[in-house]
Amino acid sequence: MAELIFVRHGQSTWNLERRVQGQSHEPPLTDLGRRQASAAADFVRTLGAQAIFSSDQVRAAQTAEIIGERCQVAVRHDQRLREHDHGELTGMLSSAAMAAWSADPHAASDPDAPYDPDLVHGRTGESPRQVADRFARFAADVRGHDGRIVVVSHGTLIQTALAVIAGEDLARMTWHAIANGDVINAAGEVIHRSEADVAVRR
């Protein structure tokens, strides 16, 4: 039976600029992002990955390419591993997107209310439940694989995937601290964090 290991892509140019990336294909990895991907690749190589699947968005695909080359495993791209589509918020500075989200009457809700998994982000984007559903379809397709499968994807997709695997109610899902370049097991534990990222945070 497959054992899923997740890798969040390395830092992208839009991570650095603090922009909402969503399903934009444009932002590539920064130099730091490539170092984070390389550090993740060195660790993943020790795990003996049998397969590598990746989002086809540039920042994830570049990360997966580095991991695949290091592990000598071909990368398979899957659109179901793309980031949560934030619709009209995509490309905005995170601060501006949060202000727009708060001012949107369609998104307004009691701050103490549970997270709404059926709320579409950015009006033209998708809901958390839609993200969960497409990951669940991917997981069903790879369930029959043997050994470790590395999934290179994005922060919110990975958060949602972990909730799906744990069988959590999406309205009260657990939020994990996942940094760029982190390697995470299916229980949501960070099993490797790039020293490059740690150095920047100090």
TrEMBL record:
CDD domains in the cross-refs: HP_PGM_like
Location of the active site: H9 (tele-phosphohistidine intermediate), E83 (proton donor/acceptor)
GO cellular component, one term: cytoplasm
Alphabetized InterPro entries for the sequence: His_Pase_superF_clade-1, His_PPase_superfam, PGM_Phosphatase
Binding of substrate, residues: R8, H9, G10, Q11, S12, T13, W14, N15, R59
Membrane-spanning intervals of the chain: none
Sample GO molecular function, one term: phosphatase activity
One Pfam family hit: His_Phos_1
Protein name (record): Histidine phosphatase family protein
Organism: Epidermidibacterium keratini
